[in-house]
TrEMBL record:
It comes from Jeotgalicoccus meleagridis. The keyword Nucleotide-binding applies. InterPro entries: aa-tRNA-synth_I_CS, aa-tRNA-synth_Ic, Rossmann-like_a/b/a_fold, Trp-tRNA-ligase, Trp-tRNA-ligase_bac-type, Trp-tRNA_synthetase. Keywords: Aminoacyl-tRNA synthetase, ATP-binding, Cytoplasm, Ligase, Nucleotide-binding, Protein biosynthesis. This is Tryptophan--tRNA ligase. One of its GO terms (biological process) is tryptophanyl-tRNA aminoacylation. Its EC number is 6.1.1.2. The lineage of its organism: Bacteria, Bacillati, Bacillota, Bacilli, Bacillales. Catalyzes the attachment of tryptophan to tRNA(Trp).
Amino acid sequence: MKTLFSGVQPSGIPTIGNYIGAYKQFVELQDQYDSYFCIVDQHAITVPQDRLKLRENTRKLAAIYLASGLDPEKITLFIQSEVSAHAKAAWMLQCISYIGELERMTQFKDKARKQNQRDGISVGLLTYPPLMAGDILLYNADVVPVGDDQTQHIEYTRNVAERFNAKYNDIFTLPQIKLPEVGGRIMSLNDPTKKMSKSDDNQKSFITLLDDPNQAAKKIRSAVTDSDTVIKYDKENKPGISNLLSIYSSLTDKKVSDLEQQYEGLSYGEFKKDLGEVVKEFLIEFQDKYNYYLNSDKLDEILDEGRDKASFKADKMIEKMERALGLGRKR
Ligand code: TYM
């Protein structure tokens, strides 16, 4: 069986963009792969975090992974900082990465711009990609399901793996990115030219998975569209309505072309009202499952088991990496 790896940061509550770009794919793929899902708390501290909030969000994120429909019997779910191999791998990969290639990452450039105004730019923000590459390479992952904002990081992961294989020892599998068919980049509700992000200052621009369902429906109804009236997917000219069509299609598994037909001749208002109801129903069902896992003793058991299983596999790869680099004594 081939291996899958993916991660989500506990830097806030995930949005429906994260759900559509990541979690939905995870659930669809869990039967086909030996799947490792990680709560990447070490990535989260590349920007300042409140320690109590980070712990709380880490736990919530575990319940969110499970509420999405992942089966704890089939998958491995764990917290990055609890598997020490990740930090070790990150250090080794940093030593074969170039400052220039890391400075070229668009996520670094975006976050650095934001951070610089507030607290200065941490070195961790720059070396974020080697930590992420380590996550993936430790498990010899064949596929990495993500939203399209992670494309550059996966390309870097392949490059650094290839470099290591060629220079030291051929130990890493080159991972393939897996983007969702619809919704690889869900856009902001009030500015559909920008990605939907949980760290956006404007609360109206995103819907989190734990938002009040009625408030979420309201956010959809007041989402920015255009002055035209036709409900048609056209990303260039109608980014707002195209984004809402993607959300609708992904949450109902209806094709975008079928939705266009269904709403032919109807107004944006009617379309948004219906989508608001779809989102509301989705969140009610999701939050039911979320509350169950958050309040269940099972959550810690699942995370303990996940940590042990992940450590077992990752430690073997660390040994191979250290051997290839000549670290420590001969074993
Ligand atoms: P993060 O925590 O920002 O986002 C988690 C996942 O959600 C996807 N995503 C989106 N998809 C569609 N539309 C959006 N608006 C949207 N916003 C976010 C992201 O692409 C991602 O799949 N660096 C990663 C975490 C990470 C990781 C890894 C991922 C660390 N190690 C190893 C894969 C493999 C990140 O910051 O994701």
